[in-house]
Amino acid sequence: MKAFVFSVLIQFFVPSVFSSEEKVYSRIVADFNEDGIIDVAYSEPGLCGNAGCWWSIHKGRGNGFYEKEVLSAFFHPLAVNISMKEGKPVVTIYHRAGGGEGQLIEYEPNSNELTKISERTIYPDDNGNAKDRLLYEELFGDLRNNRIDETISEVEYLEQIEKIRANQAIGQ
User: Fold this and answer.
1) Which residues contact 30 (CB under 8 A, 6 or more apart)?
2) What is the 3-state secondary structure (H, E, C) of 31-51?
3) Which has the higher per-residue pLDDT, 115 or 148?
4) Which domain of life is it from (predicted)?
5) Which residue in 16, 73, 19, 11 sits closest to 44, CA to CA?
6) Strand partners, 62
7) In the chain, N or C: fewer CB atoms in 10 Å?
8) Under the phi-then-psi rule, with left for phi > 0, alpha for psi from -120 to 50, and beta for the rest, what region is 96?
9) What are residue 117's phi and psi, to 5 degrees?
10) How confident is the model at residue 19 (pLDDT cuts 50, 70, 90)?
């Protein structure tokens, strides 16, 4: 089974329709694993900043239902790629370090964990290395254009998670 991981570079602010006491979650709808079936991910409550936030990812089944959480992880926004190497899924992420540099890290998914298999420093910003910028865009460029980002209330989040659990229990 492939791992499904991602993140986004968006500051999520509480819309005026939510009261200040209400927890706010972020949701992204996208085909994270490129299997042609829409998947969904939910953030932990609160704002996702430039460093990212924790996400729980649910694989779409293609019939309007989703699997239970397949992975929960913290990632830098908009900097995750899932690909196959030698028949195994590999998750590549970029952790921004500042000053135009960051770490490009590859992980192998094992159950609900990621095992680091490689790491290197790259300089992908506009004033950095052109090859690194090209690599960064090749790895992470498409996810920015092929998804829906939205902020949802705690009530809507809990309703969606309950539907996922109920559908899993009845084997949908």
Assistant:
1) 6, 38, 39, 41, 143, 146, 147, 148
2) CCCCCCCCEEEEECCCCCECC
3) 115
4) Bacteria
5) 73
6) none
7) N
8) beta
9) -115, -20
10) very low
- Domain residue extents for the chain: 24-169
Q: How far is CA 170 from CA 59, 65, 68, 164, in A?
A: 17, 11, 12, 10
Q: What average pLDDT does range 23-50 have in this prediction?
A: 75
Each residue's pLDDT tens digit, 75-105 = 765 777 777 778 777 878 888 888 888 889 8
Strands of the sheet containing 39-43, edge to edge, are: 66-75, 53-60, 39-43, 24-30, 147-153
- Which residues make Cβ contacts (< 8 Å) with residue 86, sequence separation at least 6? none
Give the DSSP letter of residue 143.
G
Q: Could you give the 3-state DSSP secondary structure of residue 168?
A: helix
Q: Is 58 helix (H, G, I), strand (E, B) or coil?
A: strand
Q: Computed from CA positions of residues 132, 133, 139, 140, in that sequence, does the dihedral angle turn out positive or negative?
A: positive
- Given a cut of 90, is residue 122 above it in pLDDT? yes
Q: What pTM was computed for the model?
A: 0.57
**pLDDT, averaged across the chain:** 72
Q: Rg for the chain (alpha carbons), in Å? A: 17
